[in-house]
Amino acid sequence: MPTVTITRSDVTKEEAATALRAQLGGHYTVTPKDGAHEALSVKQSTMSFASVRIERVPAGTKFHVHGGGLLIGRLVNELTIARKIVTAISQAPGLGA
Prior knowledge:
This protein is an alpha+beta fold. Helices cover 32% and strands 33% of the residues. Strands 1-5-4-3-2 form a five-stranded antiparallel beta sheet.
């Protein structure tokens, strides 16, 4: 599971979603998820998708990215879209890059 930590501790999921949309472009759909944890859903196609869980830590904000799918599909998504999302988060100007 790829993970990235940024130094800002006050990042909202809406702010993270906006920054990811700007970094990834129009081929990706980024949607804030409701639930017990702050999270985002990132989808490129039916088979290419990932979940991003947002966690506040003393050093800032940690983003845990999980490729979606079952077995082989999950492995492929961990190596492709999940890594692309981690790179996009770490380079996003609005998130502390």
